[in-house]
Amino acid sequence: ELMPVGAAHGSSYQHHGTDKEATLRQGILSPVPEKKLKLVMADKDLYKACAVEVKRQIWQDNQALFGDEVSPLLKQYILEKENILFSNDISVLHNFFSPSPKARRQGEVVQKLTQMIGKNVKLYDMVLQFLRTLFLRTRNVHYCTLRAELLMSLHDLEISEICTVDPCHKFTWCLDACIREKFVDNKRARELQGFLDGVKKGQEQVLGDLSMILCDPFAINTLALSTIRHLQDLVGQDTLPRESPDLLLLLRMLSLGQGAWDMIDSQVFKEPKMEAELITKFLPMLMSFVVDDHTFNVDQKLPSEEKGLIPYPSTIPEPFTKFLQENRIACEIGLYYILHITKQRNKNAFLRLLPALVETFSDLAFSDIFLHLLTGNLTLLGDEFAVEEFCTGLFDGFFLTACSRKENVHRHVLRLLLHLHHKVAPAKLESLQKALEPTKQSGEAVKELHNQLTEKLELRKPSPAEVTEAPSMELPLPAVPTPASR
What we know:
The structure is a single chain. By secondary structure, this protein is mainly α. Helix content is 63%, strand content 0%. It is built from 26 helices and no strands. Helix 7 (108-117) packs across helix 9 (142-156), helix 11 packs across helix 14 (217-237) and helix 14 (217-237) runs antiparallel to helix 15 (245-258). The longest helix has 26 residues, at 276-301. It is globular.
């Protein structure tokens, strides 16, 4: 049974007083008399057959019943998100973040919740309380996505009764446009900053809801991608991170989003303090990596007589590893930088920075969203999987360090191998198959993936007919069909 955290955990939107008749009018124009509502509630079949307008009147005064109706939908929503992250279709073009915000809002759960709420502010407020409660209880960031999708679904239907009283509406609408473009441009950055700066004294609780909107993985993805793009631009402009107001705003929003759980849990509605070293040391270090790559690439293109003997840097500056371990925002940006270089097929940079991922803040490098994106981007480096050094660095040096303690990592490695097994050298593939064997504690998903991999590898083995001795040349040669390449 879902119970709210209470009005303290985020702003409450019932700004129309507590008069029952007024509240009922938010549901439908002609309220059903209370006696009839009691009769309906007493008869389960009658309740089921009721129009949603009547159910809204029942739900708004019966939170437990409404919680029972909403709970399966929320479970379904989380399951759908996880299924996408663990999908066997690995692609750099179609990943978790590919669907547009508008397409996502057409999903069954969002549509059903939107219909259940209608124009009823009280029901909307209850759903938000459920989402805050569950986010606090589970730390599952998909509840933050649903918080934003639900508001924007009501926005699409022009339900002003709710949109005008949700203080996050305009901020979410602006951020939604950025998510659609996968970039925060200067104009929208200023708008978003205006909303953040406009939180008035005495209304700081709104920050709790804004932080939840910014904790949505789709928002984090947009902010992080924009940060990487800004850093590259700054390299070209010879400008330091601290001199870029737009970059500082992106960091401010990332920080607010990443601190959502702590803020709602502690009930201290203040923006997290930005560590100066993030801006003065970590980001310039990332920019120096961009310069390293550029220098190396230019050197490689020079005629051989002009080439310098510049080997690609193989060591990581110690502070980089430390930042990834101790600073949540640095870790998030660092991981997105690694996704960026993988997408660019930059094998040297990838192998150089990979060891820093073994130990990161809250094990973020082993989170499902990062591994989902990484496995997709690694398909672009498919040919490297034939190289021993690359496979050892990736599997032995990274994935296998966590497989035994984190089932989700085990699943992601098996997903990757199912997709790229034909690229891996046979000896390496055999040792990986053994290393990835499920244990007694392994869940069904891991066992099923390992079985699929074993079947694929069995199919790759030459059949006994192909292995037998070549027939005597005196006899006519039988026509052997060429085995289909798998």
